[in-house]
Amino acid sequence: MKFRTFLSLGLVSAGLTYAQAAFSDDSASIERGRYVAIAADCVACHTNPVDGRVFGGGYALKTPFGTLLASNITMDKETGIGSWTEEQFTRAVRDGIGKDGEHLYAAMPYPSYTKMTDQDMHDLWSFMKTVQPVSNKVISNQLPFPFNIRASLIFWNLWNFRGGRFTPDTNKPAEWNRGAYLVEALEHCNACHTPKNFLGGDLKSKAYYGTSLQGWYAPNITNSKSLGIGTWSKDDLVTYLKTGSVHYYVASGPMGEAIEHSTQHLTDSDLSAIAEYFATVNGPEIQNGRLALSETDPQMRRGKAVYEYACEACHKHDGTGVTTMIAGFPGNQVIRADVTDTLIHTVLVGGRGAITHSNPTGAAMPTFAWTLDDEQIAAALTYIRNSWGNSASAVTASDVAKIRSSVEIKQVGPVPDDWSLPGFRAGLKNDSLQK
Question: The whole model's pTM is what?
């Protein structure tokens, strides 16, 4: 079983050791706290997939300002939070202040967690006290000067942070308010899907408009019909968050992990509440003034040749893919988005869909970094973005080169001779591929 699958299932079932003897009189609080930890997706950042020690820290969080290592939040007294009080834990989670008064970096999403209720914080602490201790000293701050000076976070907070609990909207139904709480507080969807200012804080006027993060593009998830998920039904979004796929969309990358470790384990009522909330999150609409490139365009001809050789076997001649397994392209707003980071990243690095109860295999896409050069990848993506009714700007070789230089590409096994770049071109026997 893959580590991520084990980790996710372990958190939900028996992957964490309960101190039942000590906390048997508060088992309900522990169980509620376990659900809060899942909804808050704590495991994603605080567990290093290299060693697999749950909540043991050490996972590298790459920010525009440098790298941070997620802290050890197990009950180890020397290297974790075993010597902390509930008050200190609550202050760290909701206010971004560590045990000794140090300011925490907002890679730990306390600007969202500040909205957590007192009950959820208490239950989360009850659960965290049952987590098996892991001895792992982590030096979280790996940032270069001057970003490694924690005192500067005082000014960051003045500009970007507003503490306070979630306040229900009395004009909205209970389901909507539950959805708003889950989205804005626990699931902290804004952390990935909201554009940032020059300091890395949320541009709240553009909440959920989509933005780039760690080489991926988190798309617009407003109710915009032209840019967001406004064409999705409520059931569509519930299905996506529960299974990792719907229609042409298959979750991968950071969103795949969020579904795998968090949203697939939420109750149906909570998923329905999230969908109810997002149906009311307004976003901008655009007029479709971008004309699709002509099939006779040189880059389109090159792209079609690459697609037919390297992509068509899985994504089909008509680009529809395979339902629940392989992404389809017609009408896919991620394909048509102005930012192409995720598309390029996926072609270069590959990846798999989320492993969920309904999709236990998580069909994988191989890396093409070793078989396609920047020009070929750009041409293929341009073709995909302007075929089957899609219309979007062309991808350039420099766009691909930028992402290629920023991601870690691992070759798994030898590349067959007929898939090497010269062999690829020779086997294709198509002048349109040549630059």
Answer: 0.79
